[in-house]
Design a protein that fits this description.
Chain lengths: 71, 425
C-alpha cells in the first residue's frame, strides 16, 4: 500500500497522526511528515487515517501514481 | 420513517412575515421538542434563506459555504462575553474563566495546546491509538452481556457506558466516582436546553452549580495526582509543562470539566444514531457486516448524516459581517447550523441519502477551523469499534420504536433510549 498526501490541502488538523502514528508524524506544531510506502501491518491504520482527514488530502492506492486516486 | 414535520402548518401558501411558519420562527421551531425526531425539513427551509434573522435578534446560517466561511472567519468570536446582550445560559460559573471552546485566539490556542500535550500530536501521538485494545475489550464485554437478552436499551446498556468508561479512564477518574460525574454532566447539559415557554432560571442555576462542583472535584483530584502521578491525562496536566508553562489550577479545572462533559454527552449520540441509521438502512448494515473495512468511511458519513452536535449556539460577530447579501451585526447571537450544512444539496449530491461509500465527504460533524472537535480522533475510534462490534456480535436486532424517544437537547441531539429486540437462537 502507498500513500500520497496533498500538502497544499493539508491544514494540520493532525487527525491522521492520531489514527496512524507509525505512518504520519507532526514536525513542529503542524508540518506533516509521512512514510509513502506503508509499513507492513499498518494498512488498517492508514485507511482509518485517510477516511478521517477533514480536508480529504490523503490518497491511498496499491501503487502511488498507479491506481492511486481513482475516484 | 419520519414524516415531514411542516405538515402541522395550516397555510400551504408562501406566508407573510408574521405567520407562524415564517423564517423568523425557525429557531423556535428547531428547538421545539416536537421536531426532535426529524429536524431536517426545518433545515431545508433554513437553507432557502441561507441567513435567517430570528424574532429575538439571533441570526441562523444553514448553507454549507456560508457556514464554512464563518467557521474560518477571525471576525467570528466563540466567546459569548462579546455579546451585546449577555446570554446567562452560556456564561461560565461565577469567578471561573470560560474553557477553550469559549475563548478566542491567542488564549484559545494556548489553552488548547496545553490540553493537547498529553492527548495527541505532536507530544503524545500514540495516546489515542494505544486505547484501541481497551475500547475493543470494553465494547466486546458490553455486547456479550446483551447477546442473551431478548430486548435491551442500546443507550443505557452500551452506547453510554462505553465512551464514559473510556473518558474517565483516560483522564484518571476512579470508576467509583463515575455515577457522581455522570449526574453532574447531565445537569450541565440540561442547563443548555432551550425549552420554549419554561423559566430557564432554575435549570441554569443547577447547571452552574454542577459545573462548579465538577471543577472542584477535578481540581482536588489533580492535586492528588500532582503528589502521586498515575500515568493518566490528569496527572500529566497537573505535572508536565512545556514552553507555554502549565495550566493554572482554574484553567485545569475548566478544561477538564469540558473534556469530561464532551466525552460524556456526544459520542453516546454518535453510536446510538449510528445503530439507528444502520437499522433503518439494512442494505448498508449488511454491507458493513460483510466488509468491516468500510466502517471508517461509514462513520464519516454518519457524522454528516446525523451529527451529534446539530448547531453551534455560541458564536458572535466582532464586526458587521456580510453573508449572502445580509449584514449580520456585531454583537448578536450567531447560530451555525452544522447539521443543515451537512445536508446542503449544493455541496453533497443526494444529501438526504445515507451512503457509506460517499466520496468527498468534508462534513461538519466535528465542526471546522480552529475549534474543530478536540476529541474527534477518540470519538471516531470509539464509534468505529462500537458499531463493528455491535453488528458482528448481534445479528437479527430490530428496532422496537421508530422514531425512538429523544433526549431534550436540540444541540446534542440523540435518542434517550433505543429499545432493540433480538431474534433468539
Amino acid at each position: 500500500m502507498q500513500i500520497v498526501v496533498d500538502l497544499n490541502r493539508c491544514q494540520g488538523y493532525a487527525q491522521c497522526v492520531f489514527l496512524a502514528p507509525q505512518v504520519f508524524e507532526l514536525h513542529g506544531e503542524e508540518a506533516l511528515l509521512y512514510v509513502p510506502a506503508v509499513p507492513d501491518g499498518q494498512d488498517e491504520h492508514v485507511l482509518r487515517a485517510s477516511a478521517a482527514c477533514p480536508v480529504q488530502a490523503i490518497t491511498v492506492g496499491e501503487q502511488a501514481g498507479g491506481d492511486a486516486g481513482v475516484e | 420513517m419520519p414524516s415531514p414535520s411542516l405538515s402541522s402548518s395550516p397555510s400551504p401558501s408562501p406566508s407573510p412575515s408574521s405567520s407562524p411558519s415564517s423564517s423568523e420562527t425557525l429557531f423556535r421551531r428547531i428547538t421545539d421538542y416536537a421536531h426532535r425526531a426529524d429536524p431536517y425539513p426545518l433545515y431545508a427551509e433554513l437553507r432557502e434563506h441561507k441567513v435567517a434573522r430570528q424574532e429575538d435578534g439571533k441570526y441562523l446560517v444553514g448553507t454549507y459555504d456560508e457556514i464554512a466561511a464563518l467557521l474560518h472567519d477571525p471576525r467570528v468570536s466563540s466567546d459569548v462575553r462579546n455579546r451585546t446582550e449577555p446570554d446567562p445560559a452560556l456564561l461560565p460559573p461565577e469567578g471561573l474563566p470560560p474553557a477553550f471552546i469559549g475563548r478566542d485566539d491567542p488564549e484559545h490556542d494556548r489553552l488548547r495546546r496545553l490540553a493537547m500535550r498529553p492527548f495527541g500530536p505532536p507530544h503524545s501521538p500514540g495516546r489515542v491509538d494505544a486505547l484501541r485494545g481497551d475500547i475493543t475489550r470494553i465494547a466486546e464485554q458490553l455486547a456479550d452481556g446483551l447477546r442473551d437478552k431478548e430486548r435491551f436499551d442500546l443507550v443505557d446498556d452500551f452506547a453510554f457506558p462505553l465512551p464514559v468508561t473510556v473518558i474517565c479512564d483516560l483522564l484518571g477518574v476512579p470508576s467509583g466516582d463515575i455515577p457522581q460525574v455522570h449526574t453532574w454532566a447531565d445537569t450541565v447539559v440540561t442547563g443548555l436546553d432551550f425549552t420554549p415557554g419554561e423559566d430557564p432560571g432554575p435549570r441554569r442555576r443547577a447547571a452552574q452549580e454542577a459545573r462548579a462542583a465538577m471543577g472542584l472535584y477535578l481540581g482536588e483530584l489533580a492535586e492528588k495526582r500532582r503528589r502521586q502521578p498515575t500515568g493518566d491525562m490528569l496527572s500529566a496536566l497537573a505535572n508536565d509543562g512545556g514552553p507555554d508553562g502549565q495550566l493554572t489550577q482554574e484553567e485545569l479545572m475548566v478544561s477538564t470539566v469540558l473534556l469530561l462533559i464532551a466525552g460524556h454527552e456526544t459520542t453516546v449520540n454518535l453510536i446510538t444514531n449510528g445503530m439507528l441509521t444502520l437499522l433503518r438502512n439494512p442494505e448498508a448494515l449488511e454491507r458493513l457486516r460483510a466488509e468491516p473495512e468500510l466502517m471508517p468511511r461509514a462513520v464519516e458519513e454518519l457524522l454528516r448524516y446525523e451529527p451529534p452536535v446539530q448547531f453551534l449556539p455560541q458564536r458572535t460577530p466582532l464586526a458587521d459581517i456580510e453573508v449572502a447579501g445580509v449584514t449580520i451585526p456585531e454583537g448578536v447571537p450567531l447560530v451555525l447550523v452544522l447539521a443543515s450544512g451537512n445536508r446542503d444539496p449544493l455541496r453533497f449530491p443526494d444529501p438526504d441519502r445515507f451512503d457509506p461509500d460517499r466520496k468527498d465527504n468534508q462534513h461538519f460533524g466535528f465542526g471546522s477551523g480552529i475549534h474543530n472537535c478536540f476529541g474527534a480522533p477518540l470519538a471516531r475510534l470509539e464509534t468505529q469499534i462500537a458499531l463493528t462490534t455491535l453488528i458482528s456480535r448481534l445479528d437479527g436486532s430490530r428496532l422496537l420504536e421508530d422514531p425512538p424517544e429523544y433526549r431534550n437537547s436540540p444541540v446534542l441531539r440523540g435518542p434517550r433510549h433505543l429499545p432493540l429486540a433480538q431474534a433468539q437462537r
